[in-house]
Design goal:
single chain, globular, 9 strands, two-stranded antiparallel sheet, alpha/beta, Rossmann fold, binds zinc ion
């Protein structure tokens, strides 16, 4: 890149508050072997990144989450620490490779963070979203799936000025979407239909989605010797396929790379109990 060069004889007063590269013009000339061509200055990209970040809807609590502030050492359990470090590494790689150089387009596959409450799934998801928006200036969106369903439900009330379509369009259009707390909702047909609409639209538009869920994608007890009946039933209840249709679960596999943030089934069971008391929604 070449600095802006004023024409000979021109008197240019440099305002120290203006961008030193474009002097507030917002664009600059880059060498292209000929007369040079205009390109948007980096300062404009930064401003846009900030503007887009403010529009993501990331909850206050997670707004300052970045990959560099994710703690992978807070568990005493070395297996859990290993999982957290792996989850962090996959997240960093995702941000670094969000633009697919070979295909010359943003990537279309997402991630699904799987693990019990409190391990940092939402932190990682919010951090990836923030960093991608800041770095690539894409329009991103963060949505708590339960809150979204309540918002759509409120449109059924005639006095509401919003329509289901006006709520859903920024979500299905976002260049990167975080859908937080998948499966935490009462699995009614309406909930499944709404989720299918979001996922299918984004899938056909090749737009990436990052999910978080407290439910397992696969059945961990399948490869293990039989344990007590209650335990097996509890593990089956933890499966995402008990909350979503088979169609949605297989679509998830196509749309997102699983990032497991726990391998300790006992730890999982214990935390699931806590979770059920704390914020079980709609059931
Ligand atoms: Zn500039």
């Amino acid at each position: 890149m070449r600095e802006f060069v004023p024409p000979k004889g021109a008197v240019i007063e440099l305002d120290p508050n203006l961008c030193p590269h474009c002097h507030g013009r917002g664009w600059r000339v880059v060498a292209d072997g000929g007369a040079g061509s205009a390109t948007r200055c980096d300062c404009q990209k930064r401003e846009r990144g900030k503007e887009y970040l403010a529009k993501t809807g990331i909850p206050e609590r997670y707004r300052r989450c970045r990959l560099s502030t994710f703690k992978t050492t807070h568990s005493a359990n070395p297996h859990v620490r290993e999982q957290l470090q792996r989850g962090h590494k996959i997240s960093q790689r995702y941000v670094d490779q969000f633009f697919d150089v070979k295909e010359k387009r943003f990537r279309e596959a997402g991630l699904i963070y799987i693990g019990p409450p409190g391990v940092g799934k939402t932190h990682l998801a919010a951090a990836v979203l923030s960093e991608v928006v800041e770095r690539y200036n894409v329009r991103g969106k963060f949505v708590d799936f339960t809150a979204l369903l309540h918002q759509i439900q409120s449109t059924f009330d005639n006095s509401s000025s919003e329509s289901k379509a006006s709520i859903l369009s920024p979500i299905v259009d976002a260049e990167l979407l975080v859908l937080d707390e998948l499966g935490a909702q009462k699995p009614t047909e309406w909930v499944r239909d709404t989720l299918y609409l979001i996922m299918n639209t984004r899938y056909t538009r090749r737009l990436p989605t990052i999910f978080t869920t407290n439910y397992r994608l696969d059945n961990v007890s399948a490869n293990k010797p039989a344990v007590g009946g209650d335990r097996v039933r509890k593990q089956e209840r933890d499966l995402l396929s008990t909350r979503l249709s088979e169609l949605l679960v297989s679509r998830l596999y196509e749309m997102a790379q699983p990032v497991k943030l726990t391998i300790n089934a006992a730890d999982w069971d214990y935390r699931r109990e806590v979770k059920m008391h704390q914020h079980r929604v709609g059931s």
